[in-house]
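Re: Re: ligand-bound prediction request (bumping)

Still looking for help on this. To restate: I need the protein modeled with magnesium ion bound, output as structure tokens. Inputs repeated here so nobody has to scroll up.
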Amino acid sequence: MSVLFELKNVVKGFVKGKEKISIFEDLNMTIEEGDFVAIMGPSGSGKTTLLNMLGGVDQPTGGEVWFDGERIDSLSEGNLAKWRANNVGFIFQFYNLMPMLNAARNVELPLLLTKLSGKQRKKNVETALTLVELADRAKHMPSEMSGGQQQRVAIARAIVSDPKLLLCDEPTGDLDRATADEILRMLQLLNQKFNKTIVMVTHDPAAAKYAKRTIHLDKGEFVEEELVA
Amino acid sequence: MFGLFSQIGTVIVMNIRSLPQRLWMSLAAVLAVSVVVAVLLSFLSMSNGFASTLDGTGSDSVAIVTRSGSQSELNSVISRDSVNIVSTAPGIATTTDGQPFYSAELYVVVDGIKKSSGTEVNIPMRGISRTGFELRDKVEIVEGRVFEPGTNELIVGQGVLGQFDGFDLGQEVTFGKTRWSVVGVFSTGGSAFESELWADARMVQDLFNRGNSFQTMRIRLAEPGNVDGIREMIENDPRLILDVDTESDYFATQGEALQGIVFFGWGISIVMGLGALAGALNTMYTSVASRSAEIATLRAIGFSNLSAFFGTLSESILLSLVGGVVGALVSYLFMDGLTTATMGPGFTQVVFTFELSPALFQNGIMLALLIGLVGGFFPAWRAARLPVITAFQKAT
Ligand SMILES: Nc1ncnc2c1ncn2[C@@H]1O[C@H](COP(=O)(O)OP(=O)(O)OP(=O)(O)O)[C@@H](O)[C@H]1O
Ligand SMILES: [Mg+2]
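Reply:
Sorry for the wait, this slipped through. Here it is.
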């Protein structure tokens, strides 16, 4: 398996007023293509910050972030946006659907950044919605759907442009157990059948069980855990 | 660059669909802009109408002679002798029976009651002769007949009829100790003369104790615009302390004093526009704040910050354009063609009609656009600068 992500000596801190908060002092890690990593750890340990740096929406203070042989931490704002459009699908805790667009239009959003024709886009949207078993809800507005359904629309949106990488921040944090399991099975399917590399932040040990491996973040350090068979 | 238009298009569609969530605030912004535009247009259409009334009043082929230094017809005096001398000047057209084509006229003020306010105002009354009618191009009796020379009869301009009480056909009116009967209504094609009462010059001289003097002399020019011959004669004859000008120049100068209306209108509109601008800024900052999660999410997906910028800017421009069009429509419905009288040259009333023109509309819409552009720019800038990690932050 080839290496997809490589973090070298990553330093990350925030300045809050006069105070400096250091989150990572020397973070090193690799994520291989096809991996499904769960990141756990106490609140404030830097899980979201790590995910943001992987997704190119936040920059490390020092060190390097490599993705598929390309260094992304030094890309310009515009190039990062392009890189995200080509390589990353995001799944958020609160789904972050556009309330004024129906399911199909929401799923179509990433495709507006591609050269696909309207017809092609429609086809891809259908495929993605079918994959998350919501083909019959294409015309529904987010407000007309349950949390689980909204998250499935969000997953369809994340995969519609076929990115290698899915980044999920507490994707089941707002869902009940049964619905959460449904979403997690879907992520597992995407990982196993479609070879998506998934990095998922979660507080829920049961959710972490769906991943191939779990990393514990504590005080900016990694504590690697057992590999799930 | 690719897909920028579809990105911006999508953002605009989303913004517009989410407008109902900010309905009252957006409506307030629209209303503010429409009030500003309506106010501006009412001032501009007023001065436009006023100017075109005065413009239409003056003719290029008629010269007006007044006493030197008199600011208006009202405080001008010309003696019979002066009239006779001037009438021999070169450059004066001749009538069909070979006489110099001029009209010596009186111009006095009488009291009238304004219909709209019930207040007493000055109405000009002109003592005029047969040639005075012929000299003016567009005079027409629209009702009744012309006054009989040597009688207490008068005719009223159409503008007077609409704006002032008591001048209906057949009615008797009293000015001081004199009594007059209204025997006709005349039109002059919308010029300021329509704000006047006309009667026989001799009768006006007698009843207003003017002896044998006049106030102005109107002269038909042999060659339109050319008053050189008359001017030369006046300058060379020490008995003649007079001014001469073409009527159109004379009224244009009088109208210029009212340019003040335009400046005042713009001044008020700009001050009010600043208020509307504050409203637009507030509305748009609120819009950006309420959409910040959406904006950040789109940016995370890979949308460019230009789409956030132009999406916000278009919303602002759309709102103020709607306001501008509403304001323009309101002023069109309520003001265009509205006839009123106001103080004209020499403290008499000039009846005129508000006149909106495409150029004025353009002014109104431009002002609305400006408010939308500036009011949207800074919030749009903020939208474009919104950190993408906002999308990942909890609890919105
Ligand atoms: N933009 C920021 N500015 C300043 N400090 C920040 C910023 N983002 C995060 N932090 C701080 O960095 C630390 C790590 O935050 P982060 O959100 O990564 O934690 P987390 O592990 O995701 O926590 P949680 O489980 O609550 O989501 C926290 O102390 C937080 O206050
Ligand atoms: Mg977090």
